[in-house]
Input
Amino acid sequence: MISSLTITDVEVTDVRVPTSDNLMGSDPFHKKPDYSAVVIRLHTNSTVQGHSLVFNIGAGNDWVAYGVRDLAVLVVGQQLDTFVQSPAALHQLMVEHHQMRWLADGVFRMAAGGLINALWDLWAQAEGKPMWALLADLTPEQVVACVDWRYLRDVLTPEQALDILHRGRNGIEARRERLQQHGPVAYSTSGWLGLSDAQIEVDIKAMQDRGFQHFKTKVGGNLDDDIKRLTFLRGVIGDEACLMTDANQIWGVDEAIEWMLQLSAFKPFWIEEPTARDDVLGFIKIRQALKSQGIGVAAGEQVPSPVIFKQMLASGALTHCQIDAIRMGGVNDVIAVILVAAKYDIPVCPHGGGIGLCNMIRHYAIWDQLAVSCKREGRFVEYLNFLQDDVFEAPVTVSQGCYDTPVEPGWGLAMKPSFIEQHTFPDGAVWVDRPGPVGAAFTA
Amino acid sequence: MISSLTITDVEVTDVRVPTSDNLMGSDPFHKKPDYSAVVIRLHTNSTVQGHSLVFNIGAGNDWVAYGVRDLAVLVVGQQLDTFVQSPAALHQLMVEHHQMRWLADGVFRMAAGGLINALWDLWAQAEGKPMWALLADLTPEQVVACVDWRYLRDVLTPEQALDILHRGRNGIEARRERLQQHGPVAYSTSGWLGLSDAQIEVDIKAMQDRGFQHFKTKVGGNLDDDIKRLTFLRGVIGDEACLMTDANQIWGVDEAIEWMLQLSAFKPFWIEEPTARDDVLGFIKIRQALKSQGIGVAAGEQVPSPVIFKQMLASGALTHCQIDAIRMGGVNDVIAVILVAAKYDIPVCPHGGGIGLCNMIRHYAIWDQLAVSCKREGRFVEYLNFLQDDVFEAPVTVSQGCYDTPVEPGWGLAMKPSFIEQHTFPDGAVWVDRPGPVGAAFTA
Output
């Protein structure tokens, strides 16, 4: 079947949800996000489609959509078989394009990643496998061939990566069975800065009823408020439950250290994004300062390139590697980062949330626990309990505090047509009666 | 006059030159650049305009143009006076916009920088001052207030920056007089990888006749070719002339070290962009390995954020700081980097080339040498002898190997209307008869 599939069209839709109405997703820096997605659908000469998306938080979603539409010319007319033979070739053609690479990371790498991920989905759809299984069924040689090693081999050589993956074949069937019973352990992000204590308590109780024992909250707005919020949260979840904190880059380096030392009594499991996404030396300094307090350091949702991840992992700046599904150049880049994390034995704890991120990251977590790090302990995957049932044909599910290991082919990103229609920006029903799109996009 | 100026419209034009026809600008990674610019013109309620541009190398110029047009809503209707009162406010509104900052650096920061630079030009036009003089006439307090210190103060505090700028007032009038006689020392980038030795020799001889003693060449395609090229170049310029090398990120970290050790006999003054633009730890390793050979390490044209620059400068990874005029968030970001460089006594040697970059960077170099580092020695500013006379109303000029210090107000970026008309992409006369824009844009 793969050998006959040709991509005939790339459909790109700007979809946004006015989450800022109820401050879901709010943090000190991102005060009023409107969770958004560039929805990418590859049409083919058969009924099989490839789906992916690029998550954004409102304004700017159209920038990525513009980029995806432009890069689509590199994909239309391609045979899936060509991609399958060398997933690295398309990745390189885009990410290292001799004129486009001037655009650097951010919008460019995200747009390229959206298309690359759609090709991977098409492949998995054609094979009838969920993404984690497609990855796990590749040979170690095939996996290593997906990666651009140019800037990575000073910390991890392709040969070392092969060793890691060959070791990962040992006992893989037993791990596969266990993961099919209970997928990766999930944690819940509950303490959005814009929500009241009462709202958060309701949310946490509901998550506890579903088996959750790990919770994350936003910090960094105001130290007194943080102390109150953490006191309250410890009261709700108890002293032993795992409590992560997330500053979303609000602090400078020294400020991050001082602030977290004042919160250390609440035993935060990690501080996520204590400072700028690209401050490798800053993260190293923060990690060193917080080590004796037992506070870990995590980042990833905005780490813009495998090169920054490489430095963060090899230097020990990160204690937890929060790979994200849409920030970089697709599956190829994420494979690289998961392999580097395995070499340095840093747990992969993917970044979820948004629209569709949880759908995607569960596959990476399963692949890592099944075939790369081969470890389950100490690995927690972010889970958000909204924008699922109304959005996706096959919503993400959790059981007893763990992700359910998906069985549907691909990422599981196919959206309900009615959701797309209503939320298309700016002409969908949800948006058409609101303040003008330009004004809404740039609310200060 | 300033108090009455209001921005009424932002005109954005996608301008491209088919430089790939003769391989000007070619290097191992960027094989066929088409030098391009997003041309930004602020119209006002008077005849005064504000001009800037964002340089690109072909495909993707439209991505940045799209972004500038989108962000323009934040500028139209603004009074210049509001910007003058707080240049930081607009910079922050764009670069740290609570929804847009998710787009990270690259396209987003470049688009924001294009608009911010146009505001600065409008200010300078209204004052009737060249940009360097506008900057030099600001009080130290005004300069420091332009900068976003959130992620920088762990290496440079606002108070330390004030000290640097206050010291810079000593002897400023004498330096101003000297710089008005001879602007910053220029160097010539001559050894484009796609050009023949004969072509390069003609070019170098012409530059020597104009007083140039510093030359840069591209390396990294093939070691044997590099040895031949450097042997040839040393033959043309002599053993004593300053010869820089530039790899445009073609190498991994260890490869960069091995390769440059094999070229050390040719006494390269610096190796520019030996590896990935964001590999701080990689640059540190390279610098340490090449130190004993007397080979410096330079970068900047693709350093994507002040945070990466901060790390590169404070760690000693860079021996020369190649600030660029369009990569980051405009004047405000560049001020920050020049101040950090001054603290660590790292010479500012701006990145030129492209369309209009030389027009802009001379102002930064003059301001640095006049009012910040206050040093001329060891500071070299890139100069390219093409895309000037046919392009700009007031082209950049050099005398005796030095930039002439400009006297015209603003950046000096006003383009000849005929140039813009002919080179507008894809409908200008230069492009309309060529292969389709999409095909041309994505030539592999």
